[in-house]
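Help!! Second protein's tokens look totally different from the first
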Amino acid sequence: MGDLVTMYTHETGLVGIVVDRHPKAISTTPAQLGIMWTGGSGKMDWEPEGWLEVISEASNKKETRC
């Protein structure tokens, strides 16, 4: 959590920060990450982990990754 991400699958130009992670519901479903987008609605959006590209990792990370 705390990584800065962009949605490389869409040309939005937005950058978001990872604020939550929802584990996989079933083995074929990708994990969902809670993202607060800059210039967004101010609400957290759930996005598939596979759609996101980390552009800057949080400095307080342990062994977990987005």
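Here's the second one for comparison:
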Amino acid sequence: MPSTCADDLDLLKTAGAAGAVLALAYFRRDQKVWTKDGGSPVSEADIAVDRRLAEILRAARPDYGWLSEETTDSPQRLDRTRVFVVDPIDGTRGFIAGCNEWTISLAVVAGGRPIAAVLMVPAASISFWAVAGGGAYRNGERLEVGVDKDLASPRFASPRRYVSAFEKETGTAVRHRVVPSLAYRIALVAANEIDVAIAKPNARDWDLAAADLLVQEAGARLADLSGQALRYNGTETAHPTLIATTPALFGRVADMVRDVDGQGHAEGPGNQDGENGRRSGEPRTATASPGLWRGT
């Protein structure tokens, strides 16, 4: 009998809990760190957690495809009805630096969309989960975004240039939160702790799939600038500029992003990007700023 979405969710929870225990065993301890081809780091913990998740998930669902940031991709996943989409540690820079806001992201994708998702924030004892049509939850509490159109003091998690543009356009001070994990930034929209999260181009399926289902089930949306929902498990796993916010705010934020990007603004240090690329090079030390609110 085929597994139900609820069955898959239970399996993701089991795997996520095991991954969290393993990741915490490495957290704030000396470990090897390598540099990927794109310049972002990967740690011993990334590899160990990836292997543990694969052991649990692929053994339980051998007919499912597999797409993970830390596993060499295979075209075999393209022919599978359901696919695990996994990031063993999203926010590796924050993890290495000792920041609490890194995540373990797990999703099952079917027909190009996530149908079950778990996002663990182990160092903060937080777990999110969602199933298609069944709502989104954080530590057992159902999530539902607000519907207000006016932002008296908006909360952004995005590259700094968008914050500056919004402040200039509206004359409104923005609270800017820096979060190492892209998946967590998006999930915070579902949790009503962030009003707008913006991802620069090249975020990957594994950064997004679990958080996408969370915002969808909480009543928000994650989409490209045209408002098109994301499709997963394609030949290409990278995505363009993305916005996570409420439906009421989406159009206004998309117009602002188009204006800013059309002016060719450069991004300085401390930008908020997904951590993509492949491993290469020798061990090195990486640093990152912890998540925090920055007054403007």
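Reply: Different proteins will give different token patterns, so don't panic. Confidence is low (pLDDT under 50) at residues 265-271, 274-296.
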